[in-house]
Amino acid sequence: MAIRSLWLTFFMALIWGTSFPVSKIAIDIIGPYAFRVAGSLMSCLVIFIFFNKTIISSFKMIDRSAFIRIFIIAVPNVFLVPTLNSIALHYISVTNATILVYTMPCFTSLILMAISGKVNIISLFSLVLCLSGIMFILKEVKFGLGEAVILCSAIFWAVGAIISQKIVSTIPFKARLFWQMLMSTILVCATYPFFQSGELLQPISKAFVDPRCLMSVLYLGIVGNAVAYYIWFYLIQNESAEYASYATLLSPVITVIIASSFLNEIPSIRQIVGFILILTSAVLVNFLKPFIMKLREAR
Fold it and tell me: Does the N-terminal or the C-terminal CB of the chain have fewer CB atoms within 10 Å?
């Protein structure tokens, strides 16, 4: 595991750890889907500004096969997961959403072990710890519509991580990220009228006028989406889907600290113990497993 990947892991955890609390501010004002539209548009603009040369040069490389590959990766990762997260945050607290969305690494490990037909002891033990932590916390959570939506998001996130690792594309990494964001934005805009009740344009325009909404949109669009997904796909490409998945488990600590400090969501003792178990599972996969694999390769 490269030092660069380790630093990027902590940076991604910091970004996603702050994304839910910041997103919640705008979602409570303009609704989840209007927020998704505004954030998606901002993400596409930011990525194009930074990587426009690579993006323009990739036009010639996009054929039918490349388009399908990018689309398959984009749908679960960049369209479904952020959209379901936004919808869930409309119904439940930041703390509850954080608890359930980070069941994703558990699903990732389960799917990967099922695909390979092999059981890795460290992965299995990490999975048990992660599930134990989640079940410990769930006793504090009332399961409703929002919880069901965020759990679906976790499943799609796990599937998306594995798909991203399995599907090989010849399109440059930076250009591929833009096309995924663009496809997601088109899907979000196309489905927006079906999920948004009342005025369609007014909530979106308010997202760029209201100071609190604008802050959330800028943060999510520039940092929470553009930068975070760049790191996410980089870790999948250069490490593994499982590594990237468990790396996200560092985020809940940051989220809970922010939620308790600014949103008055104080975690209980059960939640704290559960988080400790979850973070232990992350340490096993992120540090112990790569170390053991490195020792085996050295032999």
Answer: C
Q: Could you give the C-alpha distances from 214 to 26, 190, 228, 255, in angstroms and in order?
A: 8, 22, 19, 20
Is 252 within 8 Å of 97 (Cβ atoms)? no
pTM for the predicted model, two decimal places: 0.76
Do the beta carbons of residue 179 and residue 52 sit within 8 Å? no
Amino acid letter at 133? G
User: How many angstroms separate the CA atoms of 125 and 173, rounded?
Assistant: 33
What tokens were used for 128?
């048990």
Specify the pLDDT at position 150: 87
Residue with tokens 């998001």: 153
**Whose CA is closest to 74, among 158, 150, 187?**
187
Report residues of the chain scoring pLDDT below 70: 1-2, 138-142, 241-250, 262-263, 265, 282, 285-287, 290, 299
pLDDT in tens, 113-135: 788 777 778 878 888 887 888 77
The vertex-78 CA angle with 30 and 116, nearest 5°, equals 140
CB of 186 within 8 A of CB of 258?
no
Instruction: Compute the distance between CA of residue 185 and CA of residue 82 in angstroms, rounded to an integer.
Output: 11
Residue 29's Cβ-count burial label (10 Å; 0-12, 13-18, 19+) is middle
Alpha-carbon dihedral angle through residues 218, 223, 226, 227, given to the nearest 10 degrees: 160
CA atoms of 108 and 243, how far apart (whole Å): 10
